[in-house]
Each structure stands twice: as structure tokens, then as C-alpha cells.
Design brief:
By secondary structure, the protein is α/β, with parallel strands linked by helices. It has a single domain (35-295), classed as Vaccinia Virus protein VP39 (Rossmann fold), CATH 3.40.50.150. The protein has six helices and ten strands, in the order H-E-H-E-H-E-H-E-E-H-E-E-E-H-E-E. It has helices spanning 35-41, 67-77, 93-100, 112-123, 202-216, 242-252; strands spanning 45-46, 83-86, 104-109, 133-137, 152-157, 220-230, 233-235, 238-240, 256-264, 288-295. Helix 3 links the parallel strand 2 (83-86) and strand 3 (104-109). The chain is globular and about 60 Å long.
Length: 299
């Protein structure tokens, strides 16, 4: 089956997409990594670089993570041929990474433009593939319409950060002339769809995440991993520990927290502005984010 992207509406039957491993690894192995590669992944602070295929244009998408982040997680928690999902597929980064690594992948998004962007990026990939990557224009709350239970090896995403982006951008993390760039005083929210988690305040956001991951849990293989990337943020001089709310929401859905990894972004942050000096110490949210790893626990 060729690796093509497809936009569809709710199907009358489950999608035909592969989910079984095609490698020769022993059944008790978590992934296809060698021992040497495994050791590198054990360090709990990760750095990544963007490449030419990454989307950096905020007019196309306001918040993307690098292909290299998605690839590291996919390599760590799946075998070749297995199925990866992204409940908030955005620009399609997880689909691109899955294509590169011979994994099947399915992504959901409420915004048709993002599904079309994902399709466009996949269509530019010239690799011959025996796997399938698909972008679906639908709410992640409807994942069970598309997949059978216990078929997903990995869910990986960077969800909307509650209502962080749903306000005018003041670029406080930038210095000098960089502050009044083309993003200054613009609202960069994904959409104003009432189902969009990016329009929710934190309590409503937490409740919605629990609903979505309660839907996803039965689709996961036993011990299948669920990786979520978010930052914390500041609003009205108050720190919002978004990663804590995400942990609580996903645990309420039935997942078990396994690992917390720090994404050290200092290697990709330039000309950082001064926050709070000289009287109010504030850590720079743009310099690090959380990558939280859960799994579906054994019965």
C-alpha cells in the first residue's frame, strides 16, 4: 500500500491501515533500537534541530515542533510497520516522521487548512513506502470511528496550549527590533472553533483532554505509549503549570505516567529578551518544554 494522505469524513467502517510490526525484532522488544542507540535516549534532557522540511512560517502554523522530535519518539516507542496517531496533527510533522521511519500514521485536526497542509507536505515526499500516512479532518474525540481497539502503538502530539495563543502577541521574549516583528500584536490562535482546545481556559481544557484521551485509551495496545509535548506559560504575572494539568487529565483518562523529559530549546533560541529584571525573577518559557511519556497500563 502506498503512503498517501487522505481527507475523509466519518467512515461507515474502520480504516484500512496497517498496525502490525514488519521487522524481525523479538516480541518482547519495545522498539528496533540497538543497545547503543537506547543508551542515548535514556538521558532525560533532549535537544533538537530544525531541518529544511520543517514548517517555521507562523502564517502557516503558529506552533510546530521539529521532525527530529517526532522521529526520536517514534523510534523509541514503536517498531517498523506499527501504527502511530496524532490527535492534533497540525502541520503534519508526525506523519512526515512516520513516513521516514516506515510506520503507519493517522492524524486528526479540526481545521481543514491544516489537513490540506499535511497532505501537501506528504505529497512532496518521494520515498517509496509500504506504509500509509493519513490526515483526517475531524475532532480527535471521534478517533474510535476510525480505528479498532488495541491497534495503536504510539500516540504523539503537541496539543493546543489552552488559551495561551488566544491573545495579542507582545513578543516579550524578543529583544530590540525583533520585538515589533510581523507577529507583534497579532492573535495567532489556531482557530475560533468552539471545539478548539486553544480557546479554552485551563479547567475546561483539562476536562476536554480527559475526554479525548478516554476515547483514545481503548485504541492503544497494552503498554502502548502516549507522548505529549507542552510548555508552561505566564499569564497576568502568574505561572500556569500546563504540564501538571495535562498529567492530571491524561491520568484521569486511564493512562499511567512513565517519564518526563525536558526539551532543552536553548540551542534554537536567539536574542532572548529580559524578563522581570531587576525585581521579578521569571524563567524563560521559550527555553524549555516538557515531553511527557505515558502508557496504557497492563490490566
Amino acid at each position: 500500500m502506498s503512503g498517501i494522505s487522505t481527507t475523509i469524513e466519518k467512515p461507515n467502517e474502520k480504516l484500512e491501515i496497517g498496525f502490525s510490526k514488519t521487522c524481525d525484532c523479538p516480541d518482547n522488544h519495545l522498539n528496533c533500537l540497538t543497545a547503543k542507540e537506547w543508551i542515548k535516549a535514556q538521558i532525560g534532557v533532549w535537544q533538537f534541530y530544525y531541518e529544511g522540511r520543517d514548517i517555521r512560517d507562523k502564517n502557516l502554523h503558529p506552533a510546530t515542533f521539529p521532525i527530529s522530535l517526532a522521529k526520536k519518539c517514534i523510534e523509541l516507542f514503536t517498531h517498523k510497520g506499527e501504527l502511530v496517531i496524532d490527535p492534533f496533527v497540525g502541520s503534519g510533522t508526525v506523519l512526515i516522521a512516520a513516513r521516514d521511519l516506515d510506520r503507519n500514521a493517522l492524524g486528526f485536526d479540526l481545521k481543514k487548512e491544516y489537513v490540506e497542509l499535511s497532505e501537501s507536505r506528504l505529497s512532496q515526499q518521494k520515498l517509496v513506502s509500504h506504509t500509509r500516512q493519513m490526515a483526517v479532518w475531524d475532532d480527535a474525540r471521534n478517533t474510535s470511528y476510525y480505528l479498532d481497539e488495541e491497534t495503536v502503538a504510539l500516540s504523539i502530539t503537541s496539543p493546543p496550549y489552552a488559551n495561551l495563543l488566544n491573545r495579542k502577541r507582545k513578543n516579550k521574549s524578543r529583544r530590540g527590533k525583533d520585538r515589533r516583528n510581523e507577529q507583534y500584536m497579532k492573535v495567532e490562535q489556531y482557530s475560533q472553533d468552539p471545539r478548539d482546545l486553544g480557546t479554552y481556559d485551563v479547567p475546561e481544557y483539562k476536562k476536554a483532554l480527559t475526554e479525548i484521551y478516554s476515547e483514545i485509551l481503548p485504541l492503544m495496545k497494552i503498554k502502548g505509549h502516549n507522548v505529549i509535548n507542552v510548555p508552561d506559560f505566564w499569564r497576568d504575572n502568574t505561572r500556569i503549570p500546563l504540564h501538571v494539568y495535562v498529567i492530571e487529565a491524561v491520568k484521569d483518562a486511564g493512562f499511567e505516567l512513565r517519564n518526563i523529559i525536558i526539551w532543552d530549546r536553548t540551542n534554537i533560541v536567539n536574542r532572548v529578551g529580559i524578563f522581570g529584571w531587576p525585581s521579578n525573577y521569571i524563567t524563560m518559557g521559550v527555553t524549555f518544554e516538557y515531553i511527557m511519556d505515558f502508557w496504557r497500563p497492563p490490566p
